Amino acid sequence: MAASDGVGNGAVVVVFDFDKTIIDCDSDNWVVDALGATGRFDELLRRLPWNSAIDAMMGELHAEGRTVEEVAACRRAAPLSPRVAAAVETAHALGCELRVLSDANAFFVGAVLEHHGLAGYFSAVDTNPAFVDGDGRLRILPYHDFHAPAAGHGCTLPTCPPNMCKGKVMERIVDEISCGGGGGGAGGRRRVVYLGDGRGDYCPSLKLTERDYVMPRKGYPVWDLIAGDRDAVRGDVREWADFDDLEAVLLGIVAECLTSEQEEDDDDDDGEAAPAPAPADQCRALQPTLASGQDQAILPKAVHVPN
């Protein structure tokens, strides 16, 4: 990836959830409601996991003559606060690497970020793969395939749905930024800031260390889970309630991290040896494997977006 100035070299990797974090709604429900299929979707949820139900719902809508462009138009109308856009743009300008980690899907996430001119600020999107098949139907697949024998993510935490353990993805992200990913000062790797709201955001919060920050949305499920056992989360917890908070808290954390990195660099200049980088072959082994090609694939799994 040809990154723009600062991306991948700063002190901070900011990882955003998508639904009710970047946008102020649930993307699946927003589309289903806008297309008048709420009742049918509720019926599908009685017998299917959420990820499978939304794929089936897209199949029913396609059979009725609804087009992919109609679905995309619904997504583009989803509410996104200008404060979120400002936070993304400012954090990027300060040299942060920005990522999305979401249990939505690549088509929905991509439609929103492109519409608001934000796609180029993100170096990677980890979400459920989506593609348009040869018949023009939108297909939505699980990030972790749980249908085949011995498949799935293997996490036993009840807050993780079968199609995606965000904790497993966060572990991979931490491995990536620990391998010559730039920045990090004397601490050995860059700091992570994770923002989320839902139950699925609890597992990745548990994967972070005292170096990192967790930004749960106050009054939402992940906040309740963290508050119920505060000692389980090692990262520095900084809650936010609305999008003014999100911008202020996130940029405050970035400022703290940049100051800390400068202090650590000053200590190195005073004669303390910086930690040796991980061997190049080890880093290459940790790079994510992209999803196999599918018809008109749109942002499958981890996709690096040119800036």
UniProtKB/TrEMBL annotation:
Region forming the signal peptide: none
Binding-site residues for Mg(2+), renumbered to this chain: D17, D19, D197
Protein name: Phosphatase
NCBIfam families: DKMTPPase-SF, HAD-SF-IB
InterPro entries named in the record: HAD-like_sf (IPR036412), HAD_hydro_PyrdxlP_Pase-like (IPR006384), HAD_sf (IPR023214), Pase_PHOSPHO-typ (IPR016965)
Acidic residues bias locations: 261-272
Organism: Oryza brachyantha
Keywords, in A-Z order: Hydrolase, Magnesium, Metal-binding
Residues holding substrate: D28, D103
Cofactor(s) demanded: Mg(2+)
Region (Disordered): 261-307
GO molecular function: metal ion binding; phosphatase activity
Active site: D17 (nucleophile), D19 (proton donor)
